[in-house]
Design brief:
The structure holds 2 protein chains of 2 kinds. By secondary structure, chain A is an alpha/beta fold. Chain A folds into 2 domains: 204 residues, D-Maltodextrin-Binding Protein, domain 2; 209 residues, Periplasmic binding protein-like II (D-Maltodextrin-Binding Protein, domain 2, 3-Layer(aba) Sandwich), CATH 3.40.190. Chain A is built from 18 helices and 13 strands. In chain A, the strands form 4 sheets. A 5-stranded mixed sheet of chain A has the order 2-1-3-12-6, covered by helices on one side. Chain A has a 3-stranded mixed sheet with strand order 7-11-13, with helices on both faces. Chain A has a 3-stranded antiparallel sheet with strand order 9-8-10. The two termini of chain A are 41 Å apart. By secondary structure, chain B is an all-alpha fold. Chain B has a single domain, classed as Orthogonal Bundle (MetI-like fold). Helix content of chain B is 74%, strand content 0%. Chain B contains 13 helices and no strands. The chains are: A alpha/beta, B mainly alpha. At the A-B interface, helix 3, helix 4 and helix 17 of A face helix 12 of B.
């Protein structure tokens, strides 16, 4: 019954589009849909609270549309993605779904499953208000397919100020040389210099992603993903060597740990540094820790002035049953009100450059300041520069290297090169 | 005349009635099991890949030949073989020894039987979560779980990396599986022992056989069908292993097995052609184990 009624509505809205479409841009059609279904994996904690903030904005603007949240729980959407894919393949898409902005959308775009939203960027003025580096990164052949609602930073260094003082570290390391010198100080103090989380491989891959960026700089790093830097060349080899050196300062038993466990080593004073995305801050705050006393932050060494980003975004699937409602939702997603309702709770910054900073905590304020002025580079492991096939092979290659005792540098370079090729296939 | 006709008709109509009853399940099994197997075979011969390609076309056996050179597939397969060997041997040996002890007519046999069978009631995924903690690789002061227990009983030198060690990972993965399934093997063997009539033992005793000889020459040979059943059951559980691995170590490369790689290829990479090819290989592997057994069983049934 319900499916039937959705089909009817879909047919009706397609007809409505066909009628209005000839006179004006279809994006301006008023939202007369009575239902709207989004698909997300934000089901608990700050993520769910942030989403609710955006939903409240949407409901205030669209009182006649019933908001249906088809969330599927599971970190980073491990379960949600499978369910979503089966719905897309059955041509029964939700009205909008969540995905990392950038190359993670590659498969949907190539499969013709997403609508081009470029005109929405023009009509809403987003092309002016989002940083141009970001617009460039999410544009595929001149078209943009998603609306980023937030920005996370991947290249952040975290540590416990008390532990650092004990080890004799007075300021954040800005270069890799300073970083390695500080790791040595932690080692002398008798604790591992770097907290590692090996479970599921991605957190180690996250570390490598940063290390490659830190070792070769933003230009060469971007070259890795447009083919101008070779994966088997000297830059990557040097990066892997640094990576190997950093891993040697890691905690024992890292293979058992998920990232929150590794983060806890740092906040408990049992390990020195931690390289992790800024969702760590949101996690620690929900654990009751205080920014500045229990933990503090800096741009990861070697990447000061570079902002390695990843972004959650919403899309408009081809054949969305309630297309007008979806467009109304996407407008909320890109709006200042929507983003400022979502991000302080999610623990990320607004993708816009005009957000109301008074709503954000000290870390997020500094991140937002960097966001406006830094060089922006996408994260590989979180879907900005690599598609699903690349990420899967990249993580496996790193997992193989790490579980093998991080000895086979040449083998890792070869696996990474193969991962890049897998992404292009 | 008419009466006789009715009599003749009756078995036919009751046959049809019976058929009508099983028809729904036959149809659903045909569609959802065999139909979808054929569908998967079909997909595995194409290049269908929502992760990258747009146009789908037939590529013959390319997906299968690609698997041969796919280092991750061979790695997963190798892991699976290691796991299967250790799991089956470990479960058989512990289960058999326990059955042997209970068979001697120990007091409270019923209690022990359910006591050891109980772990089977726990799902692999829940057990995976618990063993994830027990098999923690941290040592000495940092140790927890089994490593800590080993220290406490003075066997600290036995501490090891468990499922994160490069070579021993799959062997540690087998520990929880052995722990869970050996009670089941115990129950099956015990039933096997109980199925042997006491007259046989008596006859052997009368002929002057020692206890050891009775076991070796009278009882064990009669357990062969039980052993075969156990091997088949454990074998196919082992080859399909997925939830235990995910529960303990997620999708980490070091403990990846075929079913996990299949899942990753299908749902993370969205490379359906590759995912289904892996699934079909797995299906064939399991069929090689199970089908001869089913045929053997149905022959046995026919003789009876």
């Amino acid at each position: 019954m319900r499916k039937g009624s959705i089909r009817l509505i879909a047919a009706a809205s397609v007809m409505a589009l066909a009628i209005t479409g000839c006179s004006s841009s279809s994006d301006d059609a008023a939202n007369t849909d009575t239902e709207f279904e989004i698909f997300t994996w934000w089901a608990s904690g700050g993520e769910a609270a942030g989403l609710q903030g955006m939903v409240d904005v949407f409901n205030a603007e669209n009182p006649d549309t019933e908001f249906i949240n088809a969330s599927v729980a599971g970190g980073a959407g491990v379960n949600a993605k499978a369910v979503l894919q089966s719905r897309l393949d059955a041509n029964e898409p939700p009205d909008s779904f969540q995905a990392h902005a950038g190359m993670e959308l590659d498969g949907y775009v190539r499969g013709g499953q997403l609508e081009d939203l470029t005109s929405l960027y023009e009509s809403e003025g987003w092309d002016e208000i989002f940083p141009s580096d970001l617009i460039k990164a999410i544009t595929v052949d001149g078209k943009i397919y998603s609306v980023p609602v937030n920005i996370h930073r991947a290249n952040v260094l975290w540590w416990n100020p008390a532990t650092a003082t004990k080890a004799g570290i007075t300021k954040a390391p800005e270069t890799l040389d300073e970083f390695f010198a500080d790791l040595e100080k932690f080692k002398k103090m008798g604790i591992p210099g770097l907290a590692l989380a090996g479970k599921g491989d991605w957190a180690i891959a996250h570390l490598l992603d940063w290390m490659l960026l830190a070792s070769m700089g933003a230009d060469k790093f971007e070259g890795l993903y447009n083919g101008s830097t070779s994966w088997t060349g000297p830059e990557v080899a040097a990066g892997i060597k640094n990576f190997q050196r950093a891993l040697s300062y890691g905690n024992k038993g890292a293979g058992n740990l998920d990232w929150p466990d590794a983060g806890k080593l740092v906040t408990d004073g049992k390990a020195g540094f931690f390289i992790m995305g800024d969702w760590a801050s949101a996690q620690w705050q929900s654990d009751g820790l205080v920014l500045g006393t229990d933990y503090t932050y800096a741009a990861a060494p070697g990447t000061v002035g570079t902002y390695q980003w990843l972004s959650d975004s919403f899309t408009l699937p081809v054949g969305a049953p309630n297309r007008n409602a979806a467009i109304a939702w996407l407008k909320v997603c890109g709006s200042k009100a929507g983003q400022d309702a979502f991000n302080p709770k999610k623990g990320s910054i607004s993708a816009r450059t005009d957000s109301d900073l008074s709503l954000y905590d000290a870390y997020l304020q500094s991140a937002a300041a960097d966001w406006k002025q830094d060089r922006l580079v996408g994260s590989t492991v979180h879907g900005a520069t690599g598609n699903n096939a690349l990420m899967a092979a990249y993580n496996a290659g790193v997992g193989k290297y790490f579980s093998g005792g991080f000895k086979d540098n040449a083998g890792l370079a070869k696996d990474l090169a193969a991962a890049y090729e897998a992404g292009k296939a | 005349m008419s009466k006789q006709l009715n009599l003749n008709k009756r078995p036919i109509s009751s046959k049809i009635g019976g058929l009508l009853f099983v028809l729904p399940s036959i149809i659903t099994v045909i569609i959802f099991v065999y139909g979808l197997i054929l569908w998967s075979v079909n997909v595995s011969l194409t290049n269908q890949n929502s992760g990258t390609k747009k146009e789908t076309e037939y590529v013959g056996l390319k997906n299968y030949t690609d698997l041969i050179t796919d280092e991750r597939f061979t790695h997963s397969l190798g892991n699976l073989v290691k796991f299967t060997v250790v799991f089956i041997l470990g479960t058989l040996v512990t289960g058999f020894i326990m059955a042997l002890l209970l068979e001697k007519g120990i007091k409270g046999e019923g209690f022990f039987r359910s006591f050891y069978l109980y772990p089977m009631a726990i799902s692999f995924i829940a057990m995976g979560t618990v063993f994830n903690w027990l098999l923690n690789s941290a040592r000495d002061e940092e140790a927890g779980g089994l490593n800590l227990a080993l220290q406490k009983i003075g066997l600290g030198f036995l501490q090891n990396d468990w499922y994160v060690s490069q070579n021993g990972a799959m062997f540690s993965m087998a520990i929880p599986a052995i722990w869970q399934m050996s009670g089941y093997v115990l129950a099956l063997f015990l039933a096997g022992f109980r199925g042997i009539p006491d007259d046989m033992r008596e006859a052997a005793r009368v002929d002057g056989a020692s206890e050891a000889q009775i076991y070796r020459h009278v009882l064990f040979p009669q357990l062969t069908p039980t052993l075969l059943t156990i091997l088949i059951i454990l074998g196919h559980i082992s080859m399909k292993v997925f939830d235990l691995i995910i529960g303990i170590n997620g999708k980490s490369y070091v403990t990846q097995v075929v079913a996990v790689y299949m899942w990753e290829a299908t749902f993370d990479q969205r490379n359906y052609a590759k995912g289904t090819a892996i699934a079909i290989v797995l299906l064939i592997m399991i069929a090689i184990v199970v089908v001869p057994y089913l045929r053997y069983n149905s022959k046995q049934q026919a003789y009876r």
